[in-house]
């Protein structure tokens, strides 16, 4: 019997995509039996491809991440947005208006993608760099607050979030108390080792 390594299985079974959009969700790796979506969001002055690419041209969301999952199966998505989000009246602080716009666009783009792929119920693991963590937190706040029946597909992003990996995200600010309530509301999130055992219904 031929036993494939994680990398070989990823190459043989997954679908790799080199086309990355600057301003929406792009699936850079899709597994036909995925049990989770891993979503990467870049920070200020970043880019959905350049941020995650090393100097020797290794794009780790596709070149390293799928293989590192070994026997686990997940889709890998990247989200792009205009990372020049400074307000016109301040050269040092991002505009709250722009942050909310990016957060709402993230909710819309990711929800539409997951609905199109019929993966709405898959757990989400976020990997966020710097300011991208602020955008994701705003997005989850926005998603959580959508209570109307016709908005539930957008609220599913909050419900489906299982883990967030913050890389250099500044967490201080006026929304920290409100964010604490969101975390408390999501306290039933599964622990990472149980994540891939979760079955969607």
Protein described:
The chain has 201 residues and is of the alpha/beta class. The chain has one domain: 3-Layer(aba) Sandwich (Rossmann fold), CATH 3.40.50. Helices cover 37% and strands 15% of the residues. It contains eight helices and six strands, in the order αβββααβαβααβαα. It has helices spanning 6-13, 60-63, 65-68, 96-117, 131-144, 152-160, 176-185, 192-195, and strands at residues 15-16, 25-30, 37-41, 75-79, 124-129, 161-167. The chain has a six-stranded mixed β-sheet, with helices on both faces. A hairpin with an 8-residue loop joins β1 and β2 (25-30). α4 crosses α5 (131-144), α4 (96-117) packs across α6 (152-160) and α5 (131-144) crosses α6 (152-160). The chain is globular and about 45 Å long. The two termini are 33 Å apart. InterPro entries: AB_hydrolase_fold, SERAC1. It is found in: Endoplasmic reticulum; Membrane; Mitochondrion. Keywords: Endoplasmic reticulum, Membrane, Mitochondrion. This is DUF676 domain-containing protein. It comes from Bionectria ochroleuca.
């Amino acid at each position: 019997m031929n036993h494939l390594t994680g990398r070989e299985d990823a190459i043989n079974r997954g679908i790799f995509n080199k086309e990355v959009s600057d301003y929406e969700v792009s699936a850079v790796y899709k597994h036909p039996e995925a049990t989770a979506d891993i979503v990467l969001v870049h920070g200020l002055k970043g880019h959905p491809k350049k941020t995650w690419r090393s100097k020797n041209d290794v794009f780790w969301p596709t070149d390293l991440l799928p293989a590192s999952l070994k026997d686990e199966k997940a889709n890998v998505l990247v989200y792009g947005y205009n990372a020049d989000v400074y307000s016109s009246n301040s050269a040092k602080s991002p505009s709250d208006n722009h942050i909310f716009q990016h957060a709402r666009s993230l909710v819309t783009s990711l929800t539409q993608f997951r609905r199109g792929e019929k993966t709405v119920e898959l757990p989400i693991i976020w990997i966020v760099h710097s300011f991208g963590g602020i955008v994701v937190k705003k997005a989850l706040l926005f998603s959580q607050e959508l209570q109307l029946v016709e908005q539930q597909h957008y609220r599913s992003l909050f419900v489906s979030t299982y883990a967030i990996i913050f890389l250099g995200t500044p967490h201080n600010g006026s929304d920290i108390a409100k964010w604490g309530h969101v975390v408390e509301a999501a306290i039933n999130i599964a622990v990472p080792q149980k994540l891939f055992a979760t079955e969607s219904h």
